[in-house]
Predict the structure.
Amino acid sequence: MPATRQPLSVAIITLNAAAQLEACLQSVEFVDEIVLIDSGSTDGTQALATRYGARVIQQEWLGFGRQKQFAVDAATHDWVLCLDADERVSPELQASIKNALKTPSTATTGNATASFRFPRCNRFLGRYLKHGEGYPDWSLRLFDRRQARWSDDAVHEKVETQSPVGELQGNLLHDSAESLASYLTKQNRYTSLAADMALAAGKRATVGRLALSPLIRFIKFYIVRQGFRDGLPGLIHISIGCFNSFIKYSKMLERQSADTVLR
């Protein structure tokens, strides 16, 4: 008898993602259910998703972690693959996912592999980065929701689990196709959220961290992890990453100074 697999839901969160969503939906036609949580799109995202058979749910924005967990909770099946609208499942990754979910499943046992991570390949300035900070960018996105869940973080959210984490072959392709200007606008928003999260967690910025964090990041990803092999896109990508570190600590110091004045 041919092997079957665990039923699989795909959970996607969107906001005005019509230009990117179709390729994402086409890459997951092998799954059993698509759940799309939309936070107010006005560009036809919901109609496009419906044409591909997705179950669309309207939900005001809760922050990245809580919005993704809302999508997971709304799924019909316990095994969930979480994607962003600008991501695509490569054929090799699709085959790996199908193989990982073959029955019999032991996902309900404490020692089972109930979650899987795989490399994410990021396209930046027209080139898929294969080194440095842009790759392999390991992403835990496939899991049994009975044993894993998204953190509540507003940004830099992550899947939390106590079960063993497996690794799958094949890339998750990230192709945002956004301009450098829009990318920088998004990074400015992310650094503000990251600064607020760090302070809320009791962390403090110092002048030393402000100065050293970008330098350490550059050495780690551009030199040790050979980001230089990705040419000009690799150099620009790590430069923005280092600047993000500088800006995050700058914003933390700004907020710390304001708190000191108020006291």
